[in-house]
Amino acid sequence: MSSTEITITNAPPGLEGPGYFVTNLDKVIGMARSNSLWPLPFATSCCGIEFMATMGSNYDLARFGSERMSFSPRQADLLIIAGTIAKKLGPVLRQIYLQMAEPRWVLAVGACASTGGIFDSYSVLQGVDKIIPVDVYVPGCPPRPEQVTRANFRRNNANSGISKK
Fold it and tell me: Residue ranges of the alpha helices (H) in 2-144?
């Protein structure tokens, strides 16, 4: 037998039948990635302070799979936009989004990130969905840490373990 030949054997006794399944490695990796996100916080104002509380010991978003904050877009799965986005900052935010690896998700945290909030002026972007697609919106001014945690659950349930294409 040569070293490049592959032989397939039967499953050992006791390891076949109900309770065992076969799947693609891609699906298993996709499920693991969707349940263990590396968020990239993009916090510009008061919503950023509430997001910091979400990562603190009282609310601890790390318990739900968002343990490692990534400050590099190439290592992040989830972009969390918290706060007011100026129109001059729009191209920078879009570039950060495009540098993220697929699959990627976006949470718009707070009224300012979702709709521009109370700042209806020429310099404020009236919702980040004008420049990048948003998966989950978190309402409030500023939203409570529980709302950010629930939005993370909602994003997770919407994907139900399947990678976004």
Answer: 25-34, 46-55, 90-99, 111-115
Q: State which amino acid sits at residue 16.
A: E
Q: Is 109 helix (H, G, I), strand (E, B) or coil?
A: strand
Q: Is residue 76 predicted with pLDDT exceeding 60?
A: yes
Sequence-distant (6+) residues with CB within 8 A of 91 are 131
C-alpha 27/C-alpha 33 separation (Å) is 10
Confidence (pTM): 0.74
Tens of pLDDT, residues 98-111: 999 888 889 999 88
Sequence-separated (6 or more) residues with CB below 8 Å from residue 102? 164, 165
Query: Tens digit of pLDDT for each residue in 2-44?
Result: 566 766 667 666 666 665 556 677 777 777 766 677 888 888 8
Domains of the chain: 38-155 (3.40.50.12280)
Cα separation, 36 vs 120, whole angstroms: 36
Order the strands of the 136-138 sheet from edge to edge.
Answer: 39-43, 78-82, 105-109, 136-138
